[in-house]
């Protein structure tokens, strides 16, 4: 068989086809896109219904997150990294978000470094960090593990080695000012009108109170009489302040209150949350951030579950019970929405925000009247991985 080269006519036709194809491709090719310019956009100005949801991401604890939500629309605004079992708190003026966290040089092992990180609440950008002693408590977030003093001068950090102490961070000089030993006591409870005073709940049922000097060192310590029996009726460490009044709830359904006076705490008589008719079904409080109080001090909301037993105190709410704080009477029972955390916003249109721990959902409710809890105003589903705590701006 003999192969012959293409004829000139064939080569001419092929060249024309290639040229035509190239011209068509050139005509249909889209223009080059402009190079992206990276910018940082400020978030909508925060109001009383901005929500901060702490998520320790239990499946990979070294990578905790703080989710930032517009509670008016349930729009997801952004996220901050919280490292290993981090805690968060807003500054006294609400302009900064503090994160106390632990980092290891080899992610989950190696040299440990504990830091306070500061982020702007307007755009969530990192501002600065302060290294602190490697004692910061590594725990699920609850109120009282990280808190600024009311005047914004110091930041108080709960430690556990497991010995308990509080690191005092000077936010003006951006350095550690002191470490205060708090043996047998837990939590940092600031006094609203005493910026150099904080308290801690102790294992013997008393309240220890610490005074700071102007440099952040301990100037005085006092201890109250016992206000609860830790063997018979232990209290949850979550607390709610209303002005100078402070409230706790116990495992077995008692409400404890106290007034923080210049002379020290003055304790109210405890009162029962569970009416006698409901005790036979074993109703008790449960959750992490299991109760909240309206800013005006008129209503108390508590997550409750029935058939309670030893160890069921973290059970999501089957119902939310509403109380009149003036009369100590229950005035409503609503669905529980699987609540493990809840908080009421301040401002002209306060809302109750509930974190559904069974479905990782954030719900908001109108609290103008108790019927408002029968149906959510809004809902955000699939929020994070293991969210546990809600704070409001």
Automatic annotation (TrEMBL):
One Pfam family named in its UniProt record: Me-amine-dh_H
Question: Which residue positions does the secretion signal occupy?
Answer: 1-28
Q: What keywords would UniProt list here?
A: Electron transport, Oxidoreductase, Periplasm, Signal, Transport
Q: Where in the cell is it found?
A: Periplasm
Q: InterPro entries under this entry?
A: Metamine_DH_Hvc, Quino_amine_DH_bsu, WD40/YVTN_repeat-like_dom_sf
- Origin superkingdom: Bacteria
SUPFAM superfamilies, per database record: YVTN repeat-like/Quinoprotein amine dehydrogenase
Give the UniProt family note: Belongs to the aromatic amine dehydrogenase heavy chain family.
Know the name of this protein?
Amine dehydrogenase
Question: Which species does this protein come from?
Answer: Ralstonia soli
């Amino acid at each position: 068989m003999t192969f012959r080269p293409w004829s000139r006519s064939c080569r001419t036709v092929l060249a024309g086809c290639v040229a035509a194809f190239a011209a068509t491709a050139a005509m249909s090719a889209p223009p080059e896109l402009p190079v992206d310019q990276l910018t940082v956009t400020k978030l909508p100005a925060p109001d009383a219904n901005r929500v901060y949801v702490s998520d320790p991401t239990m499946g990979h604890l070294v990578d905790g997150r703080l989710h930032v939500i517009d509670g008016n629309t349930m729009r997801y605004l952004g996220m901050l990294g919280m490292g290993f079992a981090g805690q968060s708190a807003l500054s006294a003026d609400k302009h900064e978000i503090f994160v106390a966290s632990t980092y290891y040089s080899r992610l989950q092992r190696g040299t440990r470094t504990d830091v306070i990180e500061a982020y702007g609440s307007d755009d969530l950008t990192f501002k600065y960090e302060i290294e602190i002693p490697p004692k910061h408590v590594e725990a699920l977030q609850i109120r009282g593990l990280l808190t600024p003093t009311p005047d914004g001068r110091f930041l108080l950090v709960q430690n556990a080695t497991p010995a308990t102490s509080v690191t005092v961070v000077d936010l003006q000089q951006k350095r550690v000012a002191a470490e205060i030993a708090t043996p047998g006591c837990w939590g940092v409870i600031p006094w609203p009108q005493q910026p150099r005073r904080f308290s801690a709940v102790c294992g013997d049922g008393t309240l220890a109170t610490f005074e700071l000097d102007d440099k952040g060192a301990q100037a005085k310590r006092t201890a109250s009489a016992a206000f609860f029996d830790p063997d018979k009726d232990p209290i949850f460490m979550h607390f709610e302040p209303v002005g100078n009044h402070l409230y706790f709830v116990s495992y077995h359904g008692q409400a404890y209150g106290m007034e923080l006076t210049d002379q020290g705490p003055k304790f109210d008589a405890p009162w029962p949350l569970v009416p006698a008719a409901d005790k036979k079904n074993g109703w008790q409080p449960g959750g992490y951030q299991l109760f909240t109080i309206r800013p005006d001090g008129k209503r108390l909301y508590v997550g409750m579950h029935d058939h309670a037993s030893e160890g069921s105190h973290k059970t999501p709410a089957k119902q939310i019970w509403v109380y009149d704080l003036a009369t100590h009477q229950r005035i409503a029972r609503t669905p529980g929405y699987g609540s493990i955390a809840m908080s009421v916003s301040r401002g002209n249109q306060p809302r109750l925000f509930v974190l559904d721990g069974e479905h990782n959902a954030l719900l908001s409710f109108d609290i103008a009247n108790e019927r408002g809890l029968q149906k959510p105003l809004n809902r955000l589903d699939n929020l994070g991985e293991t969210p546990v705590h809600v704070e409001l701006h």
